[in-house]
Specification:
The protein is of the alpha/beta class. It is 43% helix and 15% strand.
Length: 340
C-alpha cells in the first residue's frame, strides 16, 4: 500500500467541534450500509466515520430501534456513526435531528443526494436541489435544533453546471453545515456518465468546511487521484466498500488481504445478518450485498444468480462455500457492470 496515501487517510480531521481519526469514510447507502454490514466493516477497521441507511424524518422521532428496518445500531459504533435523514419539511427534519442527538451519535446527515423517484416525488432528497432556498432552510433548521455535527450529502443539481454545485455548497455552509459529501453527478443520472471530479475541486475551493469527495473510487490509485485532483479533505467510498469491506483497512495500511478473505467476509456477513435481523429481512439484505460482492469474481454472474434464489441464509452460506471450494478466479478490479 502507498504510504503517502495511507498517511493522508490516517490523518485526523475536525468536523464541527469533534475530531475523526481518519479521512476515509463509508458513504451513505440505503439497503446496503445497514447495522450488520457496518459491524463487518468495523471488525476490519480503518474508517474515519460510518453512515447509516436513510431514515424518513417524519417517522424518526417515534421510531423504535427494536423493530425498525433502518434505525438500528450497535452501542459500540455510536461515537463514529452519522445518521442520515431524508425529508422536505424543515421542522420535521429538525425534530428528527433532535432524536439523533439524544441517542448520542456522532452527528446527523441531511440527504440531498437520493434521486430515486419515490423520494423525489415527495419533494425530498435530490428534489430539494431544485429549491435552494428550501434546502438551505432545512440545513438551518437542523443546525438550530442540535449541537452535534451537521453534515450534508448532495449532488451537482439537476443541471450539469459546477457553479450550481458551488452555490449550493456556499448556502449549506452559511446555514450551518459542518461538512459536505459531494457526489458530482446530476440528479437524474443514475451512473450512466462518470462523475466530474473537477467539480469537487470547485466546491472545495468555495467553502472552508471539510469536503468529502464521492464517486467511482474503485481502487487505492483512484482514491489517490481524487485527493490530488480535487484537494478534498477526505474520501467517501460507497459501492466499492460493499464489494470489499476490508478496503478501509487495506488502504490505510492496516491489512494486506489474502484470497481467503472473500469467502470469510461473505460468511461472516451471513452470521451478522442473523444476529441483527429477522430471517426474511436478513436474506433480502444479503442478496443486495451479493450483487456487489460477485463483481470480484471472474464468473460472478453465476454466483449472483444462485444467491438471488437462495431461500434463506443457510442456503446462501452453502452456496458461498461450494462456489469457493471450486477455487474461482478473482478479478484485480471489480466488474463495473455489477455496480449499475
Amino acid at each position: 500500500m502507498d504510504r503517502h496515501l495511507a498517511d493522508f487517510l490516517n490523518r485526523p480531521l475536525r468536523i464541527g467541534d469533534r475530531w475523526i481519526p481518519g479521512r476515509l469514510v463509508l458513504a451513505p447507502m440505503t439497503d446496503l450500509g445497514h447495522v450488520a454490514f457496518r459491524h463487518l466493516l468495523a471488525e476490519f477497521g480503518g474508517y474515519g466515520l460510518l453512515w447509516s441507511e436513510m431514515v424518513d424524518a417524519r417517522r424518526l422521532p417515534t421510531e423504535n430501534p427494536a423493530v425498525s428496518n433502518c434505525f438500528r445500531w450497535r452501542e459500540a459504533e455510536k461515537e463514529h456513526l452519522v445518521f442520515q435523514i431524508v425529508g422536505h419539511d424543515p421542522q420535521q427534519m429538525a425534530m428528527a435531528a433532535r432524536r439523533i442527538q439524544a441517542e448520542g451519535f456522532f452527528g446527523v446527515d441531511i440527504n440531498f443526494g437520493c434521486s430515486v423517484q419515490a423520494i423525489c416525488k415527495k419533494g425530498a432528497g435530490a428534489a430539494l436541489l431544485r429549491e435552494p432556498s428550501r434546502a438551505e432552510a432545512v440545513v438551518a433548521a437542523v443546525r438550530r435544533a442540535v449541537d452535534c455535527p451537521v453534515l450534508v450529502k448532495y449532488r451537482t443539481g439537476w443541471q450539469d453546471d459546477p457553479q450550481l454545485a458551488v452555490a449550493l455548497a456556499r448556502r449549506f455552509e452559511a446555514a450551518g453545515a459542518d461538512a459536505l459529501t459531494f457526489h458530482p453527478r446530476v440528479a437524474p443520472d443514475r451512473r450512466t456518465r462518470p462523475p466530474r471530479w473537477s467539480y469537487i475541486a470547485a466546491v472545495k475551493q468555495a467553502v472552508t468546511i471539510p469536503v468529502f469527495g464521492n464517486g467511482n473510487v474503485f481502487s487505492a490509485a483512484a482514491c489517490q487521484r481524487m485527493i490530488e485532483v480535487t484537494g478534498c479533505d477526505g474520501v467517501a467510498v460507497g459501492r466499492m466498500a460493499i464489494a470489499r469491506p476490508w478496503l478501509f483497512a487495506e488502504w490505510t495500511g492496516r491489512l494486506t488481504p489474502a484470497p481467503g478473505i472473500y469467502r470469510r467476509s461473505a460468511l461472516r456477513l451471513i452470521d451478522l445478518l442473523k444476529c441483527h435481523f429477522e430471517p426474511g429481512r436478513a436474506v433480502v439484505r444479503f442478496r443486495r450485498f451479493a450483487r456487489y460482492f460477485a463483481a470480484n469474481l471472474r464468473f460472478g454472474h453465476s454466483l449472483c444468480r444462485r444467491l438471488a434464489t437462495a431461500k434463506d441464509l443457510d442456503a446462501a452460506a452453502e452456496t458461498v462455500e461450494a462456489f469457493f471450494d471450486a477455487s474461482p478466479e478473482l478479478t484485480e478490479s471489480p466488474n463495473p457492470n455489477f455496480f449499475h
